[in-house]
Design brief:
Methylamine Dehydrogenase, Chain H; four-stranded antiparallel β-sheet; alpha+beta; Vacuolar protein sorting-associated protein 16 homolog; 25 strands
């Protein structure tokens, strides 16, 4: 009745995390290249957890897999990333080559397939992922478009039915096991056979995996039955059999095979050439002689000189030193490492100008490897593997290693601190303010740190307010704005874009707003932009070829100009834009305003009175009030003021001035377009009864 448990252990058997399993029926577990755990369920759902049993996300392998269920599944790795392949209850294959960029492919059907294949594997050839499956004595190859029958070259006719197949870690080699105990080993292209072997064991093995070293010509396959291992390959040694104390599980890796049981963790691998040369019995290799020379030197024996002389006579001392340095890297026991490095150091003393970099680097690397191989850390990497430590959240150790290796801050410490911060934002027991403050205190202005990436992780974890607080520490607006838009904080994104002064960034936000907001809200936001940053608004109108709004912008801007030349220049720009917008009324009005401004400047210079910024009517009235009737008539003609309006302006101004004589002359100059009642009314208004009677 108890729920199943999902437990994750370190390679040394220390429990890292444990959770009760509350999801569906599991079919397969597998690891991604970045050490995330993939849990493949019967319904085709794939759940992803990190090393500490913390759920990250999930995805589905499609409706067909959901309807027919998952019979078998495999996790594989290619240059595209980590992939998942599924065999459904309908005996069809579906796969994705990259779980981070999910694109599902349904493989072609195998004609007449009524039962699950006896074995199958995923191959990667020429950047194309294909499926190889066995049904009895037949092999089928499924690519993107077709299903074809294939026959391995040199396969014995009496080999029998296929029971097991294995693909090498680098996808270059393939091994097949049949029900007669026959093992075929060849290239995964199925174009060349490497070797064959008869194991004389007819029962189906529990596992079969490749055991190879990079760039080695020795190729071997490890076959596992209950508590028995068989290693066969293309070497002259033929086969090797090992009896195990417990049931074990094999994990193929880049340069060997890990053998895991309930109580132990072993590593089976090909002995590197440098180690073979030094440690094989009665070896006369230069590295072996140098190691013996150093041991004899410590004993204060004259044999040390004899061994050293023998190496020097053959001019092989540099090779001997290099052999000892290389072999030290492949050793797991610190005592053996030290012995080999002492021999290398001893040999260096007798070489002129031997470059020390390889020796120093090996000493540094071994200190790192020995530190992480400690059972409390539990990462027993080989020298060939030796990747980063950050994914295990061993931040202090990783930082010390970076400092020890003298990595640049951007390459080392910055990357580790950024990873720590991304982990920190997932801690739900602390408030947004506490987490943001703690991250800023630790990271500060460390080079290479991107607060926007950390904020993005916080947003993915559902902590939007924390993400906004973290973005305040991001100095680059170009990094702030896209994330704010993603978080639907458009107004804040616009503010940040305007603050940056980057018009392209502002334009990006405005285009986003145009698609996101309704028309009314969008124009309200533009008004905000209009009041906050007018130059930005001008650039937006420019990029959008909005000549009407550009004209309005220049008219508005002209009033902020203190010098008349600047004002006329702004209005001239507005005139050009109105012509482009084909708005003749606005163009004519602007042209008249330019003409009026120029005339007002001359009037101001001639009469030493303020005329600038008066309207046309006020300018005419003021000229009449000041007794400059001829100049007023000039404006009347130039601006084509309607007769009725001009007569009203003039009689009002003359009455205000009290120039009744001029008023009488004006009334008799020609027939009044406004009649004579206005003359009477204005005279009465100003209490001039005689003028009214006249």
């Amino acid at each position: 009745s108890a729920r199943p448990l999902l437990e994750i252990y370190s390679a040394s058997g220390l429990l890292l995390a444990c959770i009760p399993w509350k999801s569906g029926q599991l079919v397969q577990l597998g690891w991604t290249a970045s050490e995330d755990l993939l849990c493949i369920q019967e319904d085709g759902t794939v759940l992803i957890y990190n090393l500490f049993c913390e759920f990250k996300r999930h995805f589905s392998m499609g409706n067909e897999v959901l309807q027919n269920h998952v019979l078998e599944a495999k996790v594989f790795h290619t240059e595209y990333g980590t992939g998942v392949a599924i065999l459904t209850g309908a005996h069809r294959f579906s796969l994705t080559t990259n779980i981070d960029d999910l694109k599902l492919r349904r493989m072609p059907e195998v004609p007449g397939l009524q039962k699950p294949p006896s074995c199958w594997a995923v191959l990667s050839q020429d950047r194309v992922t294909i499926v190889l499956l066995a049904v009895g004595q037949d092999l089928y190859l499924l690519d993107n478009t077709s299903c074809s029958v294939v026959t391995p070259p040199g396969m014995s006719p009496s080999a029998g039915a296929y029971l097991q197949m294995a693909v090498s870690f680098n996808y270059r080699c393939l091994a097949l096991f049949t029900d007669t105990g026959y093992i075929w080993m060849g290239l995964a292209t199925l174009k060349e056979k490497l070797c064959e072997f008869n194991s004389s064991v007819r029962s189906s093995p529990k596992q079969m995996v490749w055991c190879m070293r990079p760039r080695s010509r020795q190729r071997a396959v490890v076959v596992a039955w209950d508590r028995q291992l068989m290693v066969v390959g293309n070497s002259t040694d033929g086969e090797r059999r090992f009896v195990l104390d417990e049931d074990s599980y094999l994990v193929p890796e880049l340069d060997g095979v890990r053998i895991l049981s309930r109580t132990s963790h072993g590593f089976l691998h090909e002995i590197p050439e440098a180690s073979q040369e030094i440690f094989k019995i009665a070896s006369m290799a230069p590295g072996a002689l140098l190691l013996e020379a150093q041991k004899e030197y410590e004993k204060e024996s004259q044999k040390a000189d004899e061994y050293l002389r023998e190496i020097k006579d053959q001019k092989l001392l540099p090779e001997a030193v290099s052999q000892c340095i290389e072999a030290a890297g492949y050793e797991h026991e610190p005592d053996t490492q030290k012995s080999l490095l002492r021999a290398a150091s001893f040999g260096k003393c007798f070489i002129d100008k031997f470059p020390p970099e390889s020796f120093v680097r090996m000493c540094q690397d071994l200190r790192v490897l020995n530190a992480i191989r400690d059972y409390q850390i539990g990462i027993p990497l080989t020298f060939t593997q030796y990747p980063a430590l950050v994914l295990r959240r061993l931040y202090p150790l990783a930082i010390r290693i970076c400092e020890y290796l003298r990595l640049s801050e951007i390459q080392g410490v910055s990357r580790i601190l950024a990873h720590w911060a991304c982990y920190k934002v997932q801690q739900k027991d602390k408030s947004d303010e506490e987490v943001a403050h703690a991250i800023n205190q630790k990271l500060g202005d460390t080079p290479g740190i991107s607060y926007s990436e950390i904020a993005s992780r916080a947003y993915d974890c559902g902590r939007t307010e924390l993400a906004i607080k973290l973005l305040e520490y991001e100095p680059r607006s170009g990094e702030q704005v896209p994330l704010l838009l993603k978080m639907k904080r458009s107004k804040l994104a616009l503010s940040k874009a305007i603050e940056s002064g980057d018009t392209d960034l502002v334009y990006t936000v405005v285009l986003h707003l145009k698609n996101e907001l309704n028309r009314g809200t969008f124009f309200m936001t533009l008004q905000f932009c209009k009041h906050q940053e007018r130059e930005t608004l001008k650039d937006l109108y420019n990029q959008d070829d909005n000549h009407q709004e550009l004209g309005n912008f220049h008219v508005h801007s002209s009033y902020s100009e203190k010098r008349i030349e600047g004002r006329v220049g702004a209005l001239q720009n507005a005139l050009d834009e109105y012509y482009k917008a084909k708005n003749e009324f606005a163009a004519k009005a602007t042209e008249d305003q330019i003409k009026l401004l120029r005339l007002q400047r001359h009037l101001q210079e001639d009469f030493d009175k303020p005329y600038l910024d008066l309207s046309l009517h006020d300018t005419v009235s003021n000229l009449i009030l000041d007794g400059h009737c001829k100049r007023a008539e000039q404006l009347y003609r130039e601006f084509k003021i309607p007769d009725k309006r001009y007569w009203w302006l003039k009689i009002s101004a003359l009455a205000n001035r009290g120039d009744w004589e001029e008023m009488e002359k004006f009334s008799k100059s020609k027939k009044s377009p406004i009649g004579y009642l206005p003359f009477v009314e204005i005279s009465v208004k100003h209490h001039h009864r005689y003028a009214a009677e006249q």
